[in-house]
Task: structure prediction
Amino acid sequence: MTARPSTGPQLINELQAILGERLSTSTYDIDSHGEDEGRQPAASPDAVAYTLTNEEVATTVKACAARSTPVIAFGAGTSLEGQIQAIHGGVSIDVSRMNKILEVNVDDLDCRVQAGITRSQLNVELEKQGLHFPIDPGADASIGGMTATGASGTTAVRYGTMRENILGLTVVLADGRIIRTGGRARKSSAGYDLTRLFIGSEGTLGVITEIQLRLQPLPEAMSAAVCPFETLEGAVDTVVEVLQAGIPVARCELMDESSIRAVNAYSKVDYPEKPTVFFEFHGGPKSVEEQAQMTGDIANEHGAGAFEWAAQREDREKLWDARHKSYYAIKALRPGSKGWPTDVAVPISRLAECIRESRNDAEDKGLMAPILGHIGDGNFHVVFMLDADDPAELETVMGVNARMVDRALAMGGTATGEHGIGVGKLGALRAQHGEGVDVMRSIKLALDPENLMNPGKVVDLAT
Result:
């Protein structure tokens, strides 16, 4: 089943009556809402609806449903597997102006926000109250987008992913109903867990408009360090032992030699071009010192070089800014090329093996494919740099990527740790879940029988 767009003049007029000038059909707006940060081909919507309230989202969805027009939710546009592309046309509902903090409950360590607020906007305000929302995917993504893709990132090793940090949601369903899931209680056994059904659904089951989040107190002390290793195995084995020792490391990020070379050139830093782990420790001053000492002792047993420490805030921010800009740094290694970032995750005991075999495969095919990852939870990324206009090179990259996914699945891992399925990994979802995909199709049809919510993503009803 494929939704057929019907974004004709009547629907445009109806939406303009609802939204006024916040309904746009300008070339700039529709083009900027048809392409994310990944490698999937652009596919522009027919119109962009800039909504401000739950009710406006609901009214817009109802109008689109009445004319069998697809709806694609849009936050900050930082997804990587084609999640925001309007591959069947339709209306992009842009929630970026829905960026308010609706409530902060300091005593209970939770807050409620609109979906369009970004993580950095949220944390600027939370810091004033001694709190922070720790999930950090790198990009300054919207909280709604992070929820829709089940994001995680650099701090997942300590604080978990979006799934562990969301208490409840407000969602507009395909028929325009507004539902609220979960609540503010830290536990519940009341019925189906609808909250986690929508987390990671990539806008295919409804438009997420509000999120109730768990918060954390700001750590009393933080310290970060960059540590080079002689071998990839030494870096990975260090992190495995750190975790087995129960050291509550807040971040441990891996970058291979190519990634470090790119970061050095792009961010004007000077790290040794070796497999490198970026660490960060949170807690009281004494506990941070103890964590760092214990980690250093373990690292030294695995061929670590000197730790480069960053205890002051501006130094830590410079360190993590370099890491967060690594995608753009890698793209700069081959000007004019197209970046294809992809990810898998495996049990951490298999991480070094999976990375090594994947890197060897890419090198054997003559590809430029720097590797970096969230080493603490077994999730790594490969950024293929390719000439998208060269069919032979594209075919080669697709083959290496497919083998990497197969390798991860064979090791008990997943086809994607945090990028999601979108349109780029539809086949991998079937390889991973088998008949479980048929159950997902049933859920999709139950909530969206006309296949209007971001059609063609995650579960493709047309196949």
Observations:
- Confidence is low (pLDDT under 50) at residues 1-5.
- Residues 101-217 form a domain with the Uridine Diphospho-n-acetylenolpyruvylglucosamine Reductase; domain 3 fold (CATH 3.30.465.10).
